[in-house]
Design brief:
- This protein is mainly α.
- The protein has two domains: 54 residues; 60 residues, no CATH class.
- It is 56% helix and 0% strand.
- The protein contains three helices and no strands.
Length: 122
């Protein structure tokens, strides 16, 4: 009876090892398949990252030669509107836009530039 019990236990153990080996082989095949698919996804993502227009610094501006609107010291609001349109047309980023520091020297000087600073300044 002892030999019969040992034989039965050995048989069950062999069946269990066979089943575990089959499961291990199945899991290995699934893992290899997932790894291959993941590699394809990564490759595709990298190619999208390189060719994506949103990843480029910014689109190139239209190819039109426009003169920058010059401030002549009059009608500042109209000039601000024109210069804003100019920068928008050329897709200039806000932090790259010029800061107006005064008239460009064309036309008459604005009243605020004609006044002489108090002595000791300027």
């Amino acid at each position: 009876m002892t030999d019969n019990t040992r034989g039965h236990t050995l048989s069950r153990l062999e069946e269990t090892v066979t089943l575990l080996t089959q499961n291990q082989n199945t899991l290995t095949a699934i893992q290899n398949s997932l790894h291959s698919r993941l590699d394809k996804v990564i490759t595709r993502f990298q190619s999208l990252e390189v060719s994506s227009p949103s990843m480029s610094p910014r689109p190139s501006p239209p190819h039109m030669n426009l003169d920058i609107p010059r401030f002549d010291g009059t009608n500042a609001l109209a000039w601000i509107f024109k210069i804003t349109q100019f920068f928008d047309f050329h897709r200039t980023l806000k932090d790259e836009r010029l800061q107006a520091k005064g008239p460009s020297g064309e036309g008459r000087r604005p009243k605020w530039r004609r006044t002489k600073p108090p002595s000791g300044e300027g």
